[in-house]
UniProtKB/TrEMBL annotation:
This is Endoplasmic reticulum oxidoreductase 1 beta. The gene is LOC114049990. It holds the Pfam family ERO1. GO terms for molecular function: FAD binding; protein-disulfide reductase activity; thiol oxidase activity. Disulfide bonds join C72-C77, C112-C147, C371-C374. FAD binds at R168, T170, W181, S229, H232, R264. One of its GO terms (biological process) is protein folding in endoplasmic reticulum. It is found in: Endoplasmic reticulum membrane. The active site is at C371 (nucleophile), C374.
């Protein structure tokens, strides 16, 4: 994890960034100070907790858009799945959107009863059909999802210990990696093909025409582009911060690579593009910070225990999480999401759905990443941002949550919770 204090010090020394962010009333120094003293130390501690370190993911899903180039053969691309014996019992036994021991037990009983009812209706149904009917019988909130979620019950889905599989440079690059990001930017960021994004090697020449086009977009589509650019910047920063510097006698040495950082972000080497990318990273931070402040009531309810089976640790984890939520609420310059989708209701609803489907498509592109470790962190951070967007546009549902029972108006799966906090931690 690259701390904002380290990043901001580099940026100040090199005068990479102007102070004020676009499309919000916030400056970079305020974000740096708030994160350094209130957020960063606590989020680091939280992500070391069992509830947040184990993430269930399917890294075997095929790319839905093009024939894959084959898996990366570089050893650092490999993800070491967590043996079942190492995963806390409460996490393994838990369902996707129930958190307490009592809720998990209730869920199992409900599923069993539902299966019995289905069997009584038609005893000729296959096991697969019965499972499908159970799925349909449960509350389906897929219309609220901004991401294509993995099926956690798939045999290919495995738990990964995120602390043992950190995001860092693996050597994955070239045409395969470029095609992933090119597809994201060219096909999902509302850009006409006649406008070339900066530094696109296929562009006839680079220039300000891209930003003239971007400024002419509505706020919602500008925000969408900045979030994707900020996510890309975050990933590139971590690759630069944890770079394979040398390998002696089979023991790798990882650390910051300033040359790589400059190649990706220096104003001269990137023809002025690097500072814009970094500002978009700060903008991404603001959006996810705002989402955490808005979702606090969901976790403040007694029904949410963040259950792993270790009662003492579970209580400490929830206490720490609620402290972080209180801190996020105290930030004085939050992004105002109400400035989005504020026009004609019919047009706003249509635009929101368009953005949701574009982002969901990006989450599917993450299954086309050829490096397992890159795919893991790409899927996690995309799901985290998608969860943040889901939260920001579910304000009424969150305000109307029942205190002691699940809500069909708004739910978060455990994987969404883990992704949300880990993405913010990035």
């Amino acid at each position: 994890m690259l701390s904002f204090p380290i990043l901001s010090e580099i940026l100040r020394k090199r005068r990479f960034l102007s102070r004020v962010l676009d499309d919000c009333l916030c400056d970079i120094e305020s974000i740096d100070s708030f994160n350094t003293y209130k957020i960063f130390p606590k989020i680091q501690k939280l992500l070391e907790r069992d509830y947040f370190r184990y993430y269930k993911v399917n890294l075997m899903r095929p790319c839905p858009f093009w024939a894959e180039d084959g898996q990366c053969s570089i050893k650092d691309c490999h993800v070491e799945p967590c043996p079942e014996s190492k995963v806390p019992m409460g996490i393994k036994a838990g369902s996707s959107n129930k958190y307490s021991k009592a809720a998990n037990t209730t869920k199992e009983i409900e599923d069993c009863e539902q299966a019995n009812k289905l069997g009584a209706v038609n005893s000729t149904l296959s096991i697969q059909s019965k499972e499908a009917f159970i799925d349909w019988a449960r509350y389906d909130d897929s219309q609220d999802h901004f991401c294509e979620l993995d099926d956690e019950r798939s045999p290919a889905a495995q738990y990964v210990d995120l602390l043992l599989n950190p995001e860092r440079y693996t050597g994955y690059k070239g045409p395969s990696a470029w095609r992933v990001w090119n597809s994201i930017y060219e096909e999902n960021c509302f850009k006409p093909r006649s406008v070339y994004r900066p530094l696109n090697p296929l562009a006839p020449s680079w220039g300000e025409s891209f930003y003239k086009w971007l400024e002419g977009l509505c706020l919602e589509k500008r925000v969408f582009y900045k979030l994707i650019s900020g996510l890309h910047a975050s990933i590139n920063l971590h690759l630069s911060a944890k770079y394979l510097l040398e390998e002696t006698w089979g023991k790798p040495s990882w650390g910051p690579n300033i040359k790589e950082f400059k190649r990706r972000f220096d104003p001269v080497e990137t023809k002025g593009e690097g500072p814009r990318r970094l500002k978009n990273l700060y903008f991404l931070y603001l959006i996810e910070l705002r989402a955490l402040s808005k979702v606090a009531p969901y976790f403040e309810r007694s029904i949410v225990d963040l259950y792993t089976g270790n009662a003492e640790e579970d209580a400490e984890t929830k206490t720490l999480l609620l402290e972080i939520f209180r801190d996020t609420k105290s930030f004085p310059m939050h992004f105002d999401e109400k400035s989005m989708f504020a026009g004609n209701q019919k047009e706003a609803k249509s635009l929101k759905e368009e953005l949701r489907l574009h982002f969901k498509n990006i989450s599917r592109i993450m299954d086309c990443v050829g490096c397992d470790k890159c795919r893991l962190w790409g899927k996690l951070q995309t799901q985290g941002l998608g969860t943040a967007l889901k939260i920001l546009f579910s304000e009424k549902e969150i305000q109307n949550l029942p205190e002691n029972s699940p809500s069909k108006g708004f739910q978060l799966t455990r994987e969404e919770i883990v992704a949300l906090l880990n993405a913010f931690g990035r």
